[in-house]
Design brief:
With about 290 residues, the chain is an alpha/beta fold. It contains eleven helices and eight strands. Helix 4 packs antiparallel against helix 11. The structure holds guanosine-5'-triphosphate and magnesium ion (MG).
Length: about 290
């Protein structure tokens, strides 16, 4: 991830800590996708600590900045995948077009199957036949079962069917792939609230988790999408995809610090094992490189 090498280069290039240093640091953070608000906040906090601890060398300033980042991430991140890992659950994946919802659903199915859970994929994106086929091929690849409806059918009835068979056959987890094409906020809200109310009435014993999937390579747009979904539905976490490309890691800090939503998983490729838990320690090791 480009951001980190740039951040290390930045500190190498400075001999003294002055106003220009803080301005340039803010710019570097913004270029690394940390976002303006968080970049300014971190530069301010660094300035306060540098003054308080009478720091003169930039190596020490870099360590202080890393501490500040780590504190922000630790405040939001959690060790667990979900709040209730041992209960029956419905995991909904939401997000706009093309961000990686279906792929992430498949990767998650593989993850939880490997952990010994009975997993069902739910093709609630009935918008295109191709979407249903795509999820079906993930079901085959991962050995998870799948419930699907007809193209153009009602996503609510697919969820309803999935819940009935989950109850009848004692599934641990439903992973629900939804459509990304409902750009209009009102349509989206209606669709999500319909699905949510079916889950609430038909499967009250299950814990519902909603993950917003966003594409890291879209930078601050990813954060804005997460913000918008968080406004219309109860979001429990973010899946940040496509971090294997040109994306900059700073977007993780922007999302966690500004939205107070944990980044639970990161996507590092298109393969079945290319989904990892977001790990603050590893992330910070990259910052300090
Ligand atoms: N490099 C890379 N590609 C990814 C990742 N996640 C998904 N993709 C690719 O991104 C493209 C879109 O992924 P999908 O899973 O179909 O996205 P979606 O959100 O379901 O898209 P719609 O259903 O059209 O809204 C596919 O080509 C995926 O293989 C990732 O972490 N890294
Ligand atoms: Mg899809």
């Amino acid at each position: 991830m480009g951001f980190f090498s740039k951040l290390s280069d930045f500190f190498v290039g400075y001999e003294q800590i002055d106003d220009e240093f803080y301005d340039d640091l803010t710019d570097t953070l913004i270029m690394g996708d940390v976002g303006m608000a968080t970049a300014e906040e971190m530069a301010e906090e660094l300035k306060a600590r540098v003054l308080k601890e009478r720091v003169r060398d930039t190596d020490k300033a870099k360590e202080l900045l890393a501490d500040i980042m780590q504190e922000k991430l630790d405040a939001i991140s959690s060790e667990k995948d979900f709040e209730y890992e041992d209960k029956k659950s419905v995991l909904m994946l939401v997000g706009v077009n093309g961000v990686g919802k279906t792929t992430s659903a498949g990767k998650l199915a593989a993850r939880y199957r490997a952990l010994g859970r009975k997993v069902m994929l739910v093709a609630a994106d009935t918008f295109r036949a191709a979407a249903i086929e795509q999820l079906t091929s993930w079901a085959m690849k991962t050995g998870a079962d799948i419930v699907k409806g007809r193209e153009g059918g009602d996503p609510g009835s697919v969820i309803y069917d999935a819940i009935q068979s989950a109850k009848a056959r004692d599934y641990d987890m439903l992973i629900v792939d939804t459509a990304g094409r409902l750009h209009n906020k009102k349509n989206l809200m209606n669709e999500l609230s319909k699905i949510n109310s079916i889950i609430r009435t038909e499967y009250p014993e299950a814990v519902k988790e909603t993950m917003v999937v966003v594409d890291a390579s879209t930078g601050q747009n990813a954060k804005e999408q997460a913000r918008e979904f968080n406004e219309v539905t109860d979001v429990s976490g973010v899946i940040l995809t496509k971090l294997d490309g040109s994306a900059k890691g700073g977007i993780v800090i922007a999302i966690e610090n500004e939205l107070k939503i944990p980044v639970k998983f990161v996507g590092l490729g298109e393969g079945v094992s290319d989904l990892r838990r977001f790990d603050v320690k590893k992330f910070m090791a990259g910052v300090l490189e």
